[in-house]
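Internal QA ticket QA-208
Title: Verify multi-chain structure generation after dependency bump
Assignee: T.L.

Test input:
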Amino acid sequence: MKYEKLLKKAQTGNEEAFLKLIDVEKDKLYRMAFIYVRNETDALDIVQETIYKAYRGVGSVKESAYFSTWLTRILINSALDFIQKNSKVVPIEKDMLERIEAEPPKSQEDVLDLQKAIGQLEEKYKSVILLRFYQDLTIPQIADVLDCPEGTVKTNLHRAVNQLRMTYKEVCSNE
Amino acid sequence: MNEPSHEVKRAIEKIEVPEGKLDQAILTGIGKAKDQQKKPPRKLYPFFIAATVAVFLTAGSAFVSPAMARMLSSVPVFDSIFEFAGDLGLVIASERGLSQGIGQTVTDQGISLTIEDVYYDGTRLSLSYLQEGTEEKGRIDQLGELQLFVDGKEINFGDSRTGKQLAETQYAGVINIHTVESLPDSFELKIGVRYIDDVQGSWNFTIPVKKAKEAVTTISSGETVTYKDQIITVNDVKIGPAGTKLSLSISAPDASSLMMVDDHLLQFNLLDEQGNALTLLDAYGTGDDSKDGRHIIEMEYRYEPLSDDVKALTVSPYLLPVNTGAPVKIEQELLPDHLPLTVDQGEMGSIIVHSIRHEDDGMVLTFESDSEFPFDGYFQYNTIWLEDEAGNNLTSSKKALPERIRPNIYEQEFKKADGPLTLVTFEMHELKVLKEYEVSIPLR
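Actual output:
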């Protein structure tokens, strides 16, 4: 069934159609959630909350082309809410970041795995990295999802890549 | 690698997905959403619980006093100042023709002051006035302190005021006078005003006041309850066409602990026999005298008029936490096609939004209070508002507070807005009802 029809059926409360829409997105949702919290249990909680909100709000999606972006926005907001409410998950300390920047990796052993490096970024940087390089969104689309000016997106993206470069030497410069 | 997109994708794709658990989480999320949608409306009044409202407190939060609400919701139609600047009781009194028209004007220093109406029924004495100045003088409501004489004798009193600016130089207001001593059924009231804004002058009136024809019924109680170091005596309740007045004496070992129990303010709700909290219009206290080593305050709480079918009232004390810090904001997307929407406020229950109605000049939100605490007709202590996409608060300047339309069901007006709406409220601290200290007052 076409995506458009699935969305319309889901909007009438058809659970099967909703599940089909989610099936395409679910692995991405989980992985993005995992990047924010870096553990399975919390990532699953975030996905659950995302699905709860999405099921209740799917009627507001105007076009099927926006469904994935809309879902991503809910996931990011759910993840940020989750982090805010659970103090055990904290963004990397600023002084630690400064240390990382001041001391570039000396050997291959010191180099963090890229996945871990992304996970250690500040939340705002994680969001732009995920949206730009994992979801392939354009700068205007990211600005829309994060509800911030395009200039802020560009700045955050630039800084996020710079920080990744410090912790993961193979990340290239052409963002 | 030269393409971060590929590299980042590859790194993230390495995250193993626990497929079974993920499917379960998705089904749980859907189940939770469906449960919420199917949840039947709360049975009304499952508990006969009390609660009250306060007129002060909570700096920095979004609570609005009844007086402010009346000001904000006033309507500039000039049949009677009582009807657009007074509280519910004065509106009813005026509509029933129980207030006295006075229409005395005194002009001094270029400022005219007119006493328009007076209402007195034994439970309250209220005056309405119109103030007209020039462009330079008397532009805002700055009526100075009053001096009052009853039958030639100066009286001790406090007052509360509401009103509405009609034009740049015109203001209409209502003054509720709370006397320490009780007043006779009819008397001559002399009113002296010495200042309006910073203009010194002399605006003196002498008006005859008579008790309204519709009788006020006084039900005496005298019942006393003791909660910790607070002794509460229910003196009486006076039921009149313009309001219901509850009189309490409260004593404590020292003045600083009067009505305070462990960082909580002792407050009172007046409930009908179905557990509905009467809407509080204002409250005031006098005294703080010392007797037998205890400090005493005489409290008067004035509520909305009582409907004829009420057979019993209950004075229900509860504890209002103070010093709780800034409230925690709750924001939730409001999707008109996905109602009801339940907003969990924590230990005090939830708000369930049932509908949003678009009208020519605004939107009307209908919501239910799903709480064991009986909030009054203005949903006091609780607050809810809508924000547009840009985060602007859409609370209407004409009607800033919700109004109860049925038990537990409220309507509130908001400014018109296009685009997505966000519902905003706060997590609520517990308002603990002291059910075992309630005092019942049979009315017939």
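Spot checks passed. The two ends of chain B are 88 Å apart (CA to CA).
Status: verified.
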